[in-house]
Inverse folding.
């Protein structure tokens, strides 16, 4: 499996991604392409247009051409690779696909996007049916949209666009959640992720259920579990939100936050505090020092739905990132 597949899916509906144009959706809607959940399938489940598919499926072409879907990335950024997932499409998957990218400001119409000049990211490449088809991308520029072209027709279950988030600083307030995945934060280290990956804590919105968060196995020693988050930008943190929503019999008993700048020693942001099950906990903090990374320690183990760290980013840091990736 290519390493880029572990990076966030910039096109995911969880980030606010969406399909803004598709030339054909006869058998199944293109909106399925950006669904965050894995595709599912119920054989011999028929609607008025045939077998029901959890994906995008176009009609059989009887003339030359290809079918196209344009996706607005929920989190614009540098694309490291794409996954054209043809799960459950066997005799009806496209034999080839290509991917192009576009970077635009604002909210262009579908007609404007169709007429735009796109940048090739993945050339016309063969696909396998009922498979994840992974393609690395080498372009280092920031993109806001991708175009999936299938040659000539057929069905694709999901389009995953994995990469590194590069937010537009002009669209961020002075104080924002510097631990948000949608702003470019990421988990770098973790002691345990037996029941749930810690990246889930950094996702937008409220947790939908207990599985939509970070949860460790039960500890049988004297230690504790922890996770390290690289912030979206070096920042002075002023508010910490530790949310145990949905975790009732398995919430941590206590938690603490510490920070560091680069490779410096850890310093205290929030001393060890007691936590309550199924509760958002908000704490004013004033560490007096800028942090590039934050470590969350939970005692001794358990689950955390969301981690929010609101702070003021180092002036000019995000602007420089944006300029470098937009050239």
């Amino acid at each position: 499996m290519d390493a880029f597949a572990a990076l966030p899916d910039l096109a995911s509906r969880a980030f606010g991604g969406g399909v803004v144009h598709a030339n054909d959706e006869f058998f199944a809607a293109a909106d399925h392409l950006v669904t965050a959940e894995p595709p599912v399938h119920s054989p011999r489940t028929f609607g008025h247009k045939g077998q029901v598919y959890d994906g995008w499926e176009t009609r059989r072409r009887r003339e030359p051409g290809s079918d196209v879907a344009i996706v607005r990335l929920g989190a614009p950024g540098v694309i490291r690779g794409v996954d054209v997932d043809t799960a459950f499409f066997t005799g009806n998957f496209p034999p080839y696909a290509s991917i192009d990218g576009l970077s635009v400001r604002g909210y262009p119409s579908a007609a404007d996007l169709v007429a735009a000049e796109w940048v090739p990211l993945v050339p016309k490449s063969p696909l396998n049916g009922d498979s994840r088809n992974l393609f690395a991308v080498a372009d280092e520029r920031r993109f806001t949209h991708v175009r999936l072209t299938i040659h000539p027709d057929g069905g694709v279950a999901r389009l995953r666009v994995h990469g590194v988030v590069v937010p537009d600083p002009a669209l961020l307030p002075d104080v924002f959640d510097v631990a948000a995945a949608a702003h470019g934060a990421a988990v770098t280290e973790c002691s345990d992720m037996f029941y749930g990956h810690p990246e889930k804590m950094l996702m937008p919105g409220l947790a939908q259920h207990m599985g939509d968060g970070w949860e460790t196995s039960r500890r049988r020693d004297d230690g504790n579990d922890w996770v390290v988050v690289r912030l979206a930008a070096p920042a002075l943190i002023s508010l910490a939100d530790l949310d145990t929503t949905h975790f009732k019999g398995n919430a941590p008993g206590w938690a603490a936050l510490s920070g560091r700048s680069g490779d410096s020693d850890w310093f205290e942001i929030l001393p060890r505090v007691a936590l309550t099950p199924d509760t958002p906990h908000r704490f004013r903090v004033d560490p007096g020092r800028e942090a590039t990374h934050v470590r969350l320690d939970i005692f001794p183990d358990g689950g955390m739905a969301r981690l929010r760290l609101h702070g003021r980013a180092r002036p000019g840091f995000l602007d420089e990132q944006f300029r470098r990736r937009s050239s």
